[in-house]
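It is worth pausing here to work through a concrete case rather than discussing structure prediction in the abstract. The textbook approach is simple: state the sequence, then state the predicted structure, then interpret. We follow exactly that order.
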Amino acid sequence: MVAVVLTLAASSIATHAGVVAHWTFDESSGPTAHDSAGTFNGNLSPSGAAFVSSGISGNAISLNRASNGFVNMGNVLDLTCGDFSIVAWVKMNPGDRTDSSVILGKHAAFTRNGYFLNVHETGGALVNDKAAFYEGGAGVSQI
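Step two, the predicted structure:
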């Protein structure tokens, strides 16, 4: 199970950051994760994704990797050179070190254009028990 609360903010150099999207996953049921800051509601996958109680503050989303659970938020941030921030609270099952655990990602197929927020090693390139942000052109920042 992965429990997540996710916020995205974007800015240009000339302006202050503004929240573009914010998903609290506080819904108790249904197929939609509502964006409380904008218009980017997320669609839960038909299987492997469900709202659960016991989140950080209220409910959370549970994603089952074996059932291909995910939430599709659509095209929130363009793949451009603009600055942006991602905030995520993630809880993994104790002892879970599944390779390539992507929490958030956006990637243009067959290019190095995109980003991933990962947990644990990914193809042997990252470290277990660490989170990492991979940006296609610049490399990896491990947290």
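Step three, interpretation. The mean pLDDT is 77. DSSP finds no helices and twelve strands in the chain.
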